[in-house]
Amino acid sequence: MDLVARIACRELDYAAEPDGLPLDPAVAIREILADTVAFEAEPYDLWSEMPRFGWPTVVVSGGRDLVTPPAVAQRAVSLLPNAVLVTLPMMGHSALDSREPAALDIAAGAVRRGEFGGLAARAHRLDALAPRAPLRLLWKAVAVAAGAEGALPAIPKPLRHVQLRINPMAV
């Protein structure tokens, strides 16, 4: 297991106990990371500490986030005394990975200029900012591959397990 996987499991609880609900990412993560490291909770409860935070906080939430659903972001904003929620309806989990221009715009406004109060009203404009070209190209490639796969005929079940045996002596 590499260092990133160790941190993801031990500190971020990526291999959490599956909740049994549809689309639970914990099921897939547990299959991918067979030899997971046990989660070690922090020595404090972050949720109970949030009301004591004295700094402005921008919480960015993706409408398509299956890892940290919008309800978690809403809960955080309700507990933070000086927070604003920016919901990007078309974004998944990571703004830096999938909506980099929006993430940088949010950081520039909130951090550099101290203008975070109006960010929520700009959410739809921020969500409409085009992702970087390589990411758009990747999305197109995945869409084409998925379309091609869907157009291929299904392989009959008995043939899926047939192994070809090549006789090295036959020429």
Automatic annotation (TrEMBL):
Record-annotated Peptidase S33 tripeptidyl aminopeptidase-like C-terminal domain positions: 56-103
Gene3D superfamilies named in the record = alpha/beta hydrolase (3.40.50.1820)
Task: Name the Pfam families for this protein.
Answer: Abhydrolase_4 (PF08386)
Native source organism of the sequence = Mycobacterium shinjukuense
Q: What residue ranges are annotated as transmembrane?
A: none
The protein's name is Peptidase S33 tripeptidyl aminopeptidase-like C-terminal domain-containing protein
Q: What InterPro entries does the database record attribute to this sequence?
A: AB_hydrolase_fold (IPR029058), Pept_S33_TAP-like_C (IPR013595)
